[in-house]
Amino acid sequence: ILIAALRISCKTVEDMNHRQTFIAKIGGVNNKDLLSLEISFLFLLKFECQANETILTTFLRDMKILHQESK
C-alpha cells in the first residue's frame, strides 16, 4: 500500500512523474500489481487526493496531540 500511496501522491502534486515500470521495479512489484494497488487505494480514498487547509490543519493538530501523549 505504501508504494501505491507514494505513486498516487507523486502523480497528484508533480507535473512530471516516473514511468510505471520504474516505480514498480523500485517497489519490488510488477506493473500489473502496482496498477491494481493504485486503483484499489484510489477507491479507498474515494478519489479524494487533494488536501485543503482544513484537512492539513486538523492533521497537524492531531499529530501534535499524539506527540504530546507519547511523552
Elements, N to C (H/E):
HHHH
| Class by SSE composition | mainly alpha
Instruction: Please report the distance between the alpha carbons of the first and last residues.
Output: 29 Å
Low-confidence segments:
none
Indicate the proportion of strand residues. Answer: under 5%
Number of strands: 0
Tally of alpha and pi helices: 4
Helix content: over 70%
Biggest β-sheet: count, sense, barrel?
A: none
Shape: elongated
Q: What Rg, in angstroms, do the CA atoms define?
A: 15 Å
Overall average residue pLDDT:
87
List keywords for this structure.
71 residues, mainly alpha, elongated
Description of the molecule:
This protein is mainly alpha-helical and 71 residues long. Helix content is 72%, strand content 0%. The chain is built from four helices and no strands. Helix 1 (2-13) crosses helix 3 and helix 2 crosses helix 3 (31-44). The radius of gyration is 15 Å and the shape is elongated. The model has no long low-confidence stretch (mean pLDDT 87).
Short description:
This protein is mainly α.
